[in-house]
């Protein structure tokens, strides 16, 4: 199966609700690599890389997020698989 990366920007009530932590858990459970981080404007940014089906699963999950989150919008775009990550990290 094809390996892809998706870059996503998530807006709404997504900071201070464990969004990054749960995104990492979802990504690791799906065998993805990449990262997730908070942005200064209140959004969460993520890069999800791995098998296409798994990436699409976590991408869809971003629209819901964890229980305390209120996701207003997810803007995502496919990216070429340029970097090879060894795991999925929360970055600052």
UniProtKB/TrEMBL annotation:
Name the record gives this protein: Acylphosphatase
Annotated ranges, domain Acylphosphatase-like: 5-92
Keyword hit for Amino-acid biosynthesis: no
Entry's family note: Belongs to the acylphosphatase family.
Keyword terms, alphabetized: Hydrolase
Source organism of this protein record: Marinobacterium stanieri
Reactions performed catalytically: an acyl phosphate + H2O = a carboxylate + phosphate + H(+)
Residue numbers annotated as active site: 20, 38
One Pfam family here: Acylphosphatase
GO molecular function: acylphosphatase activity
EC number: 3.6.1.7
Top EC class, one word: hydrolase
